[in-house]
Predict the 3D structure of the following.
Amino acid sequence: MASRDLDAEFVRSESLFIRLMEKHRTGRKKFLLHRLTVIGRLSCGAADRRTVGGLSERLRFLIKGFRVSLQSRPRPEKFSFKITSGVCCVLDHYERLILSLQRIRAGEDVTGLLLLYPQHVLLVIECSTEALLSVLQDLRHMEENSGPILEPRILLVSHDLPSRLFQLWSYKLLDETDSQRTLVSDEQSLERLVRDTLHQILRLGRHLLNKTQQITGSKVIPDGVLKEASDAVPPQAAVSRLLQMEALLSPARYISTYHSPLHHRLDSGNTPYA
């Protein structure tokens, strides 16, 4: 057999092997990957965005709830969780929450992006199904108890992603200048604003993916990295306008709609019919 034929046969065999390995890895996939995008208002001023608050009780609840089935999971309404008045702990809250979730489920990384504006927040989390539900329950608890994020709203949930867009967990505290680089017109429709904001998040994610080596070792996004993609940072005005959309679901409504049993238990007794 000629050398050219041997090379062609090797390429065909290698390609088949690669395809079989990819199929094998897909079959062994440990968990489904989801991406949650949330917006909300901060309950504090810009100077308090990374202040530490009392979170141990809430984190203990999450750890306990993560280890039991959905049927026996304690209802968040029964837990008392108070945040000191005037104290905002968004950054520390999510750093500790993510660390706890990853300790409970080893090998299921939680990655994403946290943008802290002067008055608003944009959160993107990529995680497993179980971690997604815990994050949603935590958001519901914050909304019901006036936590560090007020009026959280679900902008988008993407399911069964083929790969991660965000390889790390990173954050950035934005000032007024950073959050106003992209103009938002009041005449722009909210539907168009949703598309533009999601497109910016994807562009920002791809930019951070290309700059992974410059970010590795620090959770804070360097100013230089963010400056190179300043037009991909959704402006605070866009987040503020999106919060006015009645179509965006709260965490409580989202959980009730998509994570509740489809059929209620029927009464075991005999029900008379008219």
